[in-house]
Amino acid sequence: GVEGGVPQNMADKKEDNTGTAPIDVSLAEEKPQLQNAAEVQRLLQRLYPPLLRDAGITGQVQMKFVVNAQGRVEATSVSVINASHDQFGEASTKVVEKMRFKPAKVGGRPVPVLVQIPISWTLERA
């Protein structure tokens, strides 16, 4: 603890799904579903690192993050597991933070889940 801090017992916190620990997405009865796929696609094109685009470089990034019970990505939870290029990792973080999901559910109730997804950076052929 912190000297002079107020002790907090997690067991006293109310069960409202905002403070609950995220479960692994594989345990959810209903998986989160991306709601703004078209916006995400536009972001991938807009945020494509210019130097990599100009060089014709494509790549893959493995991301990990929490989708909360409201279907929003918790910005503090976003992390890059691995990336074929650092610039793709940075851009992927920005894209993931803008994703909106239909929340995962357990027993019919929305729950926060820990998600891992790959993001592919590909060049559109004109």
Silhouette: elongated
Beta percentage is: 25-35%
- Report the total helices: 3
Strand order of the largest sheet: 1-8-3-4
Write structural notes for this entry.
This protein is of the alpha+beta class and 126 residues long. 21% of the residues lie in helices and 28% in strands. It has a four-stranded mixed beta sheet, with helices on one face. It has a two-stranded antiparallel ribbon with strand order 2-5. A two-stranded antiparallel sheet has the order 6-7. It is elongated and about 50 Å long.
Q: Quick summary of this structure?
A:
With 126 residues, the chain is of the alpha+beta class. The chain has helices at 37-46, 50-54, 86-97, and strands at 23-24, 33-34, 59-67, 79-83, 101-102, 104-106, 109-111, 113-121. The chain has a four-stranded mixed sheet with strand order 1-8-3-4, covered by helices on one side. A two-stranded antiparallel sheet has the order 2-5.
